[in-house]
């Protein structure tokens, strides 16, 4: 009876308004790439229909521009502006994008009818002040859905790698046919790494894909180490940064693995809840590595296990590159625009891009537009 009462409460009470009216609640003009990926992954894991998935993206855009807001009208919070007082969950639960998306999809499936458009279905869940706005967001929602499958570019030795329609491509050559990949690939030596919608990291070598890790929440970062092996890093599902270990065999570039290289599981490099998105790692000639991650709106870096704050104001994953003179260049997207870090963040043009960028040692940067086109900046 308690569950039935809760369902009735959720389906009859107003829960959201089209974008928070509070001046103090800042809503970014663009979506958060990490948020759309999580919402998409939750929908896939629940096997929802295309209409239900589109309804989730329409609702997310109308309510928050697909950002995990810590503010809203009355006690509304999160991507879908769900209200704790209306039974959607505790504030900390609603601020968990996976939880919030799961609740949305749960009730969308429950109330769906053949005569409802995706927008009207979204309103049946949200019960907002402005039901017509969800259908009006269909074009934007469709664009975000396409982006949820794809990420930024990876350019190594002049070869462009991207995910398109669920598969990995390299300079127009299709490297996979499974249709399961999302985000941005990572390349180190002869290995290509990519993440599936199920949170697995797959490795391509000698024409064969195989799983090397699972339970990741962001795209992998692969780097070639001074000894010729490959280091693999990712943000796990619990928000911790980790160095991934291949449980089957050392991810090597040929030859014999060094003593003690065989490990299983992963090596935690931060507490849970510390980071989101994709880490960026540079290796130094002495064999050490520096890891850069987005932690909330902060850019954090760690060498030898000690994290320090580098900058603030980030809303996308960083991209660090080691220049020929030994200095480090850091780039990111802020409000969809390319920025590089000097003493502050310096905008590089007015173009708008998605996900992460690919920076080169010569100062050029590759970035991907919402339409999927990769542009070279600099």
Give the key terms.
single chain; 378 residues; four-stranded antiparallel sheet; alpha+beta; globular; 33% strand; disordered N terminus
Class of secondary structure makeup: alpha+beta
How many strand units?
Answer: 23
- The radius of gyration computed from the alpha-carbon positions, rounded to a whole number of angstroms, is 21 Å
How is the main sheet built? 4 strands, antiparallel
Main-sheet strand order equals 1-2-3-4
Question: Roughly what is the average pLDDT, rounded to an integer?
Answer: 87
Q: What separation lies between the terminal Cα atoms?
A: 63 Å
The helix content, as a percent range, equals 10-25%
Q: Write down the overall geometry.
A: globular
Low-confidence stretches: 1-16, 247-264
Strand content: 25-35%
Query: Count of DSSP helices?
Result: 8
